[in-house]
Amino acid sequence: MSIFCTPPSSSLSPPPTTPHRHHKPPTSTSLPHKPSLISSLTGAALSFNLIFFSPLSPPPSIAADSTSSAVQFECREEDRRLEDEQRLRNAPELVTNEDIVTEAWQIVNDSFIGTDRSRWSPQSWLQKKEDVLGTSLPTRSKAHDVIRRMLSSLGDPYTRFLSPAQFSKMARYDMSGIGVNLREIPDENGEVKLKVLGLILDGPAHTAGVRQGDELLSVNGVNVKGKSAFEALSILQGPSETSVNIMVKHGNCGPVQSIDVQRQLVAKTPVFYRLEQTDNGNTKVGYVRLKEFNALARKDLVTAMKRLQGMGATVFVLDLRDNLGGLVQEGIEIAKLFLNEGETVIYTAGREPQNVKSIVAETSPLITAPVIVLVNKNTASASEIVASALHDNCRAILVGERTYGKGLIQSVFELHDGSGVVVTVGKYVSPNHLDINGNGIDPDYKKLPAWNEVAERLSKCQKQQG
Asked: Rounded to two decimals, what is the model's pTM?
């Protein structure tokens, strides 16, 4: 499943992450059956999928022949399922209007998390299904209108319908730089495998020979088995017009091929930085402005911070004003740059109250110097994750205005006729257990304090926590 923390509505908002292909049980049509896979809320910003390796062939025996036949059967069945799904995507008229409405209803029923302002309950949602399917759906346009009204009844402004044209535009958003979208889901052994979920037609990877359903095995000789989406992306990304070598396994049981692909990353750097001096030139301040969380945010921020350190910066200002968010995983990884190993970046909460998970830093921090984070009423989503992580772990003070208060997690699902739905599936809770959504984060100061005051406040905070 894609995990994307949607920023508040704005023309500046970046497109969400790669959408899901939602699979529902068969109805009156012969739709391929596969259980809906709802990934953990700590999933990466890109979508990834599951594919099975064939086990190593055992010595010849009756049991070996039986195992081999079973594996071949599973491969054929998986390939047939993928072909059926592709056939339905290429011929959406094979799916009935009732199927599309039921599919959208089921996605919400499986994964929607109600908020304080939403009007969802299992009982009312079941009644909604009976009501809408009791009406006539003579056209696909009518079915789409019914889905829009059905989602609108939830009272959640972020859960919405996407027309086929809107979904197609969203699906073309490329973080890899080579025109692939990936999916990450643990297999039956708990190991992560990466699979090509979508391709930009005539993009670099597609032109080089990568196909839908291929499994990504390595990037520039680095085995990606067990790696997360974000880790694989970090290796895939690079300067435009340079080449990257990828090893892919075609289909579910096909051959392995080494392919050189030329990168064409179009994202622009969201980082601006400069060195300033205060206290009569005695303090060198590294100022970093982060405009959005796109595919280059973490990489370019690391470069900026290291350069500022090399120029003598001893304290830092991270400006997140008017940063509406973007790719949540970029925000999480940026927050980790400032935290000690084991410190909590954020908590994620699903529909069930007990289903709370924590995301923690795994390494020592890149920056240990005092930090001021500038925030305002337009600091939202991934920006609030970074601000709360640094603040609650005594790594930074917040200066400015209360933040926007957007702490919900959305996932994007494709329906079988090429349309899609965006559904709220979780929410973020700060390390100090503040529900960000609808509340925002209050700053420590409205105006910039002196740096000695900043250092004293952070030191006191750390002693209280220690």
From this structure: 0.67
